[in-house]
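User: Before I run my own analysis I want an independent prediction to cross-check against. Here's the chain; please return only the structure tokens and, at the end, one sentence I can use as a sanity check.
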Amino acid sequence: MSASRAEQRRVITAGKAQKIGCDNSIQTARYTIYSFIPVTLIEQFRRLGNMFFLVLGALLCLSHYYDLFEAPITPFTTVLPLAMFVSFSLLQEGYADLARHKSDTRVNVHKCVVLDSIWSGRKKALKVNDGNDITTHVTNASNHGDEESNVKILKTVSFQEIKRADIFPGSLVLIKNREMVPADVVILASSGDMGGSYIETSSIDGETNLKTRSSPNFELAGEAYKPPDKQSLEDATKRIVKLTCLGYPNGIPADCNPLNNPANGDNLISPPESPRKNINGPNESSKNFFSLLISELPNASVNTYSGQLIIPPLQNGTPSPTIPLGAENLLLRGAVLRNTAWVIGVAVFTGRDTKLVKNSFKTPSKLSKLDELINRTIILILVAMLFIALILALLANYTLAANIDNLWYAGYNRDVNEPWPYLRELGSPKWILEPPALWQHFLTFFLFDQ
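Assistant: Structure tokens:
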């Protein structure tokens, strides 16, 4: 397989949780503890009413504390009500987002069941198989000089509890009847006839009718690979152990079998961390192989899926069979298993990579119809206020400039030695020699207009 084609696929080791892509947690909350204040303030001041009164408050503060121009009221009459209103809105938004955080936490810490080695250190799922371990024999192929030997060894696994957020691609997940599928999972075995199962996808596409899903068609690899038409959970577990990395944790990916394509040694597509060891010796076909799942990259198409399951050869000296995978083999996150006692599958997409999350969009920050109407109304009012304030400022500026010496009662006079007209014994007051600038008149009348 070429490097460019390999980059378009996701390579997953069945039975080994791999930290590729992302974990299985989801987040529907809009804010974090750091982004809440700035983001919500920006949202509040998208409403022009809040922005209008914020600007008015700032102008009133300039007038009150710096005496740059005259203002009819103090800033507290505008700033205090605005602060109370915005604070109430922030509390309301924070309460709603806190509820989303709690919901996310409940979803992410929900207990799921995975199949893993007894040495993983996790708590056993006591309600599955009565909490008992499952032991099976696997064939350990080894070379001693020129002789090849197959030794039966015991492998013990168990069903264990795990947080939903801790599921990664490659994890073997057990899903029971009426449980929600925790990640996008390719079925390996089920309690249904011929490995089939039923799911309800109403939370995904709104359809309430049940859909059928099936395990891969192992019969394509040969009659010897065909599982029983009906199998118990224990028998299915033993078969999966022999196919996956649980049975051969130090094995070789099945795609590294040189008999797959002996003419092209560059056909290996196994993940970089997979052990390849010495597979080029004279007895390389006698090594232990485990299954490898070649999946498409995460995408939003819920009705399609493309992949391959490369499984170990049953006999030494034969290539590793490849089984095609399609949408009928995939259980989507959010679907509910129905009329099927159990399903065991390998997780391929988790968390943000699942098709359900790929189809969900972040709630856009949009204004209501009423907010939009208020914004348009405020723009019209603002334009009218600016026009009126400008006209009044021009008139005031012209009137003061033309009659400044006659406005002694307002404190204006260009002659600093001129006494009060009717109180000359008091001497000359501190006259205002020049009228306010046009911008000062404009701001004064603008604040009066409110």
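Sanity check: The longest strand covers residues 147-163.
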